[in-house]
Amino acid sequence: MTSYNDAFSDIPGTTVFDATQSRLGYHLNMFCMSLMKADNRAAFKADEAGYLARYPMSAEQRQAVLDRDYNRMIALGGNIYFLAKIGATDGFSFQNLAAKMTGVPEDRYRAMMIAGGRPAKGNRSRSDPTR
Amino acid sequence: MARITAGLTSSHVPAVGAALDLGKTADPYWAPLFAGFEFSKRWILSNRPDVVVLVYNDHASAFSLELIPTFAIGCAETFMPADEGWGPRPVPVVEGHPELAWHIAQSAILDEFDMTIVNRMDVDHGLTVPLSLMFGQPTRWPCKVIPLAVNVVQYPPPTGNRCYNLGKAIRKAVESFDADLSVQVWGTGGMSHQLQGPRAGLINRAFDAAFLDRLVADPEGLAKLPHVEYVREAGSEGIELVMWLVMRGALARDAREVYRFYHVPASNTAVGHLILENSR
């Protein structure tokens, strides 16, 4: 019998923000929360590395933020609603971030959405890609 | 006595709020979506609620990882629009109904739903976008709003069944409140969307259509759907749909569907909208 948590791992291209991810990403996500204040956004923009040093994050997490590598940030415990505050600080929408994470230019991603989005068929299951 | 007169569901996509705030509602990209709410804006003029219990999720605005309540009910006099990283939305302050909110909290807790009582909370697009879709851009919201924030960010969120039963407890609470109030319950979020990772952009029209059908006709069956199926079929953020079951539980079993609208896309998301009326 598959456990509650393990059941999600069959879904391709998806990270569920469970206890493991939440513990891993606590400081990364709390850094993101700080960007809800205009003064903090300005301080971060003025000196990104210096600002990140205030938070006890791992070196990998800091580098992923500096690189704006959202998939890496998620792998390291970031949650998209928290990470979106980095995007907002940079002036980018959720759609722009989604395009980045899927590795296509934003206009192509936008065109895919207008055409009806990414189909569920073929994207449901790692163990059965035909589903 | 207070009574629940109607319920509705609506997506709460932040880009929809931005389109409204920036005057882009007539743009070809957005026009079909806002056209889908024209009926609803007329409907609510003749079905004006005194209070809306607005079920939504906070998107790391009021609640960070420091504190993660599963069900949080806003009991304050007012709630300010949150700064989500680009400044607060230019929308009116949300006025609460503390007396009814505290009554619902007490009634639900004694009914064994362990609500978190919140006296200070900023409200993000999850709450303000549905208000904008239904009421447009007034200088003051035309009704009181009781925010009911459901955790769907940190796993595990509550089960669909728990949400459905909470809706029933809310109905019981409202119907025991000694004031002549018309109360609506709104369930927000959804429908299919995934905002993260290589699978971002997932849209599942067939799942969404079946979800709408079952929400109306088979809510007990739908309430049994496990979380993994929401994520698999409707995308990682499609899990927000559990909140629609709170609305459904608060409405009568024979509530009547008066309007349905579905549109793809709003940014990354399939927008679903349903209005149900109680017959009694």
Description:
The complex is a heterodimer of chains A (131) and B (280). By secondary structure, chain A is mainly α. Chain A folds into two domains: 16-91, Orthogonal Bundle (Protocatechuate 4,5-dioxygenase, Chain A); 93-126. Chain A is 59% helix and 0% strand. Chain A contains ten helices and no strands. Chain A has helices at residues 4-8, 19-24, 26-34, 38-46, 48-52, 59-66, 70-75, 80-90, 94-102, 106-114. Chain A is flat and about 50 Å long. With 280 residues, chain B is α/β, with parallel strands linked by helices. Chain B has ten helices and ten strands. Chain B has an eight-stranded mixed beta sheet with strand order 6-3-7-2-8-1-10-9, sandwiched between helices. The longest helix of chain B has 16 residues, at 160-175. Chain B is globular. The interface between A and B is large, with 58 and 49 residues.
Which SSEs are present, and which pair or pack?
The complex is a heterodimer of chains A (131) and B (280).
Chain A: H1 4-8, H2 19-24, H3 26-34, H4 38-46, H5 48-52, H6 59-66, H7 70-75, H8 80-90, H9 94-102, H10 106-114
Helix pairs in contact in A: 3-8, 9-10
Chain B: E1 3-10, H1 14-21, H2 31-35, H3 38-46, E2 51-56, E3 71-74, E4 78-79, E5 94-95, H4 98-110, E6 116-118, H5 125-135, E7 144-150, H6 160-175, E8 182-188, H7 205-217, H8 219-222, H9 227-234, H10 244-250, E9 256-266, E10 269-277
Parallel strand pairs in B: 1-8, 2-7, 2-8, 3-6
Antiparallel strand pairs in B: 1-10, 3-7, 4-5, 9-10
Rounded to the nearest angstrom, the distance between the terminal CA atoms of chain B is 13 Å
Radius of gyration of chain A: 17 Å
DSSP, total strands of chain B: 10
Radius of gyration of chain B: 17 Å
Strand content of chain B: 15-25%
User: Which structural class fits the helix and strand makeup of chain A?
Assistant: mainly alpha
Helix content of chain B: 25-40%
User: Biggest interface between protein chains, with counts per chain?
Assistant: A-B, 58 and 49 residues
What would CATH call the class of the largest domain in chain A? Mainly Alpha
Q: Roughly how much helix do the residues of chain A carry, as a percent range?
A: 55-70%
Which CATH-level-2 architecture of chain B?
3-Layer(aba) Sandwich
Q: From the 3D structure, determine the CATH topology of the largest domain in chain A.
A: Protocatechuate 4,5-dioxygenase, Chain A
* Unreliable residue stretches of chain A: none
Order of helices and strands of chain B: EHHHEEEEHEHEHEHHHHEE
**How far apart are the first and last residues' alpha carbons of chain A, in Å?**
21 Å
Order of helices and strands of chain A: HHHHHHHHHH
CATH architecture of the largest domain in chain A: Orthogonal Bundle
The overall average pLDDT of chain B, rounded, is: 97
